[in-house]
Write a structure and sequence with these properties.
It is built from 5 helices and no strands. By secondary structure, it is mainly α. It has one domain. Helix 1 (3-35) packs antiparallel against helix 2 and helix 1 runs parallel beside helix 4 (83-112).
């Protein structure tokens, strides 16, 4: 595959991934609306859609990873010439971050509404910086 074909293929895969990430963000927004409504348990209605979308995201990620190594081998001077690829990468990263942040907010809302099974609750030490610092200190070599 020559470089032009590779770049076209990469742009298509990044565009497809952006579309799937956009669907994931929309889903997380819908869940957020439910969780902020008077009937937060309606957010469970999105669980099947979430599972299907997760499969699509996983497949798209595998295809992107296949291109990642080849993209990294292209000299930086050549990569700079292909701003469309860089822009697609940035758009994907930005959308992923927005989705993750909103999903974390949704998790907090689910905790608040008692919608998380007890075995899925985070440990108290996870939110305690002192406990984390103590764990690092105890596990340092020679301490």
């Amino acid at each position: 595959m020559n470089i032009a074909d590779f770049l076209n293929s990469l742009a298509v895969e990044l565009g497809n991934y952006l579309e799937v990430c956009g669907l994931a963000y929309q889903l997380v927004q819908e869940e957020n609306r439910y969780l902020n409504s008077s009937s937060p348990r309606d957010a469970y209605s999105k669980s099947e859609e979430r599972k299907e979308l997760l499969e699509r995201v996983s497949g798209a990620m595998v295809r992107i990873k296949a291109h990642k190594a080849l993209w990294a081998k292209i000299p930086a001077g050549e990569r700079v010439k292909h701003m469309n690829i860089s822009q697609l990468i940035k758009q994907n990263m930005d959308l992923i971050m927005k989705t993750v942040m909103l999903d974390r907010e949704n998790e907090k809302l689910m905790l608040k509404h008692g919608m998380v099974p007890p075995d899925r609750l985070p440990s108290s030490s996870q939110n305690n910086p002192g406990a984390v610092a103590g764990m690092y200190q105890r596990n340092q070599p020679g301490v």
